[in-house]
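Bit of a strange request maybe. I'm writing a small parser for structure token strings and I need a real example to test against, not something I typed by hand. Could someone generate the tokens for this chain?
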Amino acid sequence: MHWGFRDAWKEKNMGSIVKNEDAEKCLRELLKAEGYELNEPKKQGETGVDILATKGEETFHIEVIGYKSSGPERAKDFYQVFFRAVSRLNEGATHCVIAIPKQAAKGLPLRAQQHRIAWERIEKTFPELEIWLVDVENRTYERTGWGKWLWNWENENSNGR
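Reply from user aminoacidic:
Good idea to test on real output. This should exercise your parser:
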């Protein structure tokens, strides 16, 4: 089976999927409407930050991923986007953003708990790091800090302690 065909079939038939391009396009529209100046979208094969959004003195280096039906693929994408985001510190970034479809919010508290000590250290080491949830369907997004996801899991699982 041709790999491109298989991927297209999986996207069509295996659950809620948001493509990287759709999440990026949505976020670009929203940021532009908020008055941000944006870099041009990258062409196929180009490297660099996905979205560079500037308004006044504030600049956001934003790396965008989609949401795949396969859990292992989502995990791989998340780990890769983490390193892409923090690599923007080499460019002087003061806000490093991982932008992901809102569907990923379901798994973030569990991922944060699974890697709890590392998640806490990442939050302390990279205070510039943020996670934004992009709702492609409703054309909205939510900004969150890295630590929110560990805090959410602990509050939901404290059993009144």
